[in-house]
Protein 1
Amino acid sequence: MPTALITGVTGQDGSYLAELLLQQEYTVVGMVRRTSTINFDRIKHIQSQIEIVQGDLLDQISLINILQEYQPQEVYNLAAQSFVPTSFTQPVLTGEFTALGVTRMLDAIRIVDPSIRFYQASSSEMFGKVREVPQTERTPFYPRSPYGVAKVYGHWITVNYRESYGIFACSGILFNHESPRRGLEFVTHKITNGVARIKLGLSQELRLGNLDARRDWGYAPDYARAMWLMLQQDRPEDYVIATGETHNVREFLEEAFSYVDLDWQEFVIQDDHFYRPAEVDLLIGDASKAGQQLGWEPTITFVELVRLMVDADIEYWERRLKQAAAISA
Ligand code: NAP
Ligand code: GDD
């Protein structure tokens, strides 16, 4: 059975990809960085089926050692500093993880086994101040954050190692994708978590930034499937993965609050703290190449996505409330 290495296995996408590869009977090796407390919430249900190995995108030798020891046929590089606002406050660290980390992994592959197939987690954030609508694999990049700039570097170094060394290296230009496992600071999960807390009487308000930004939001498990499909093709290529629909943050709010019979305008406060030094105003992707060549298409609509995230957060907070009541009884 093939072996796959996933960097960023503790993240949203890493956890879904690990589930998918286990279903396909892969041996899954998950690289995690050393932390003082264990942070395996998203993979605890499959932890016993994964080989967890310590390594860090900042440390070249750790990457070389992992490739030599586990001899994977596929490497999925999902690890990154992925939160755009943090990239403005920690731009150098973001460059180290999100840009140079890609070169460290590609160079480890070149040295240890250039036949390894490589997936790079590129991002629609690279389109930034968009040059055309919708965005395709041929749309020029104009990143608007240190994160976006770092991802452009990661994208082009992947193309460069493919062209220079013949490595089977693919870059998936993925538009925003969400799920109940999304980090709580990202706007979708911040909203659905806020809705659940307000509905259950645990909060009275939700503070947000720019409500006019438009995103092409899809469902994370669909996007993990696209990553895998890219590495099963005859030739390495880059693909846009997106739903082809765009909605602004206000529409997400309306859908999430109205689903639980609340009016978002009574609870949402716009707060300057959550505005960014430079914004990405509009993202909408054209995934027709992925549709034609990979047979990929999204399975969940925008409304279904909002509702499944609200449901998951309400269930989570109800469980927490029941546990607290049981302890105090
Ligand atoms: P995420 O939830 O933030 O997960 C990031 C992962 O990277 C975590 O497992 C984190 O480990 C790990 N990591 C960070 N720095 C590391 C380092 N120096 N060495 C090793 N591991 C490190 O991100 P995600 O949403 O799953 O996204 C996965 C990838 O796709 C990222 O590269 C992201 O930039 C990219 N992407 C995401 C989207 C999206 O909408 N989700 C869209 C386009 C591209 P800890 O658990 O220790 O923090
Ligand atoms: N996080 C956040 N918090 N965003 C807010 C808020 C808020 O309180 N209020 C408004 N927004 C707006 C942001 O200004 C942005 O325009 C939009 O909501 C989406 O923000 P995020 O959910 O943080 O995602 P992102 O689009 O910046 O980045 C995500 O998608 C990229 C793909 O395009 C991340 O997952 C990146 O890692 C990924 O590459």
Protein 2
Amino acid sequence: MKRTSTIFICQNCGAKTSQFFGKCSSCEAWNSIIEEKIFASESKKITKNSPRSQQKGKYRSELISSIQENPITRLSSGYMEFDRVLGGGLVPGSLVLIGGDPGIGKSTLLLQAANQIAQQHSVIYMTAEESASQVQMRWNRLKKTDSNLHILSETDLEIIIEELEKFRPSVAIIDSIQALQDHTICSTPGSITQVRECAAALQQIAKSKNITLLIVGHVTKEGMLAGPKVLEHLVDTVLTFEGDRFASHRLLRAVKNRFGATNELGVFEMQGEGLVEVSNPSELFLSDENATGVATIVACEGTRPLAIDIQALINQTTYASPKRTATGIEGNRLHQILAVIEKHMQLALSRFDCYLAVAGGLEVDEPAADLGIAAAVISSYKNVQLPPGTILIGEIGLGGQLRSVGQLSIRLKEAERLGFERAVIPGKTPKNQISQKEFNLEIIEASTISEALSFALGLNF
Ligand code: TYD
Ligand code: MG
């Protein structure tokens, strides 16, 4: 008979204790500790005849150069944007976790991808949250044609594993891991122990039967994947699907990827008939306005350049201390840039409120946006428009100097492609050698923020 024992596990950080506490001593979360029963597995001793003892004395390791290379043939998900984020497609036998807020479109994305993959490979969509007919309703809504896609509505892990073993699909989709239940564990579905055990069982079958698993994971209130880090360590790739629920575009990002680069970005748009790929996302984030306080930058998401409009509004304050808000840009970054402008351009911004926003609800966290932010702020402050067709790229140092940024030529190529005429960039450094001839753009190099903005706005600072 299996022995059971009771432990208390924090659902927030996974810390284990032997007694109940109202507050987790490890992550300090309140009411996160839950009692869970676990079956003690029999300890595996190394006996004389076990394979481990027979190998005693022999090396198991091998020379790195002598290991045979296994070329990976990736499966296409049918969507270029999805494949890009995966690093070129799905790797057979890998586990991909897709996290995101409820209602963002995870099930829709995976159903569409499953349908595409099923044109050529065997695919099973296991839904633990909806009934098979609900999934079919969505499928009808997506106006999908006939394909070789199987559906199973099941929450029991044992049945799911059995089906995977019998059916042996190339790709299986599990929607979602938090709804699965392993009946040998006495804790509720979605608890840390359940999530971990279900994921471990699925991993084992994926690796042994070479099935690619796409697993949906829910996100907690704080935006973390529920069943915290345990899942992220186990899987090969972690993707997040995000976006503003009130805007139609959705961003797919890789947070961890054993088979490709992270920080790659895929852009989709949610329409009445499902998700549509956006292959030219720069157009989504350009506001097409000619107004004061608008500056265009080219940010890089992974290797993907995106032209984005930054908007600023500077108004005389009526408060004791001026109000500063930033949407899509870190507040500290804005404060820092305002301080540099005040000190090195002698503009008294401390009596002005400053509101900053990135068009399209995107988050920009790279320093290359600094010059664009400063230009938007000064354009609004001086009530002077930036000349149309200008982009600004550069990091601003605390001394007011412009620092070079990475992937400059990719950014300039994107600006050129979108029909921009002029680019203000940091002056040449040994690291960053851009030749004017390479681009069909007027390239203006500046070494300080005042120099760059004098050029851009045609004013004297
Ligand atoms: P869903 O895939 O169920 O989200 P998740 O699995 O992440 O919880 O998507 C739900 C939302 O998408 C829902 O609010 C309706 C919207 N939607 C569309 O706008 N168009 C469509 O064609 C579909 C299928 C869904
Ligand atoms: Mg869903």
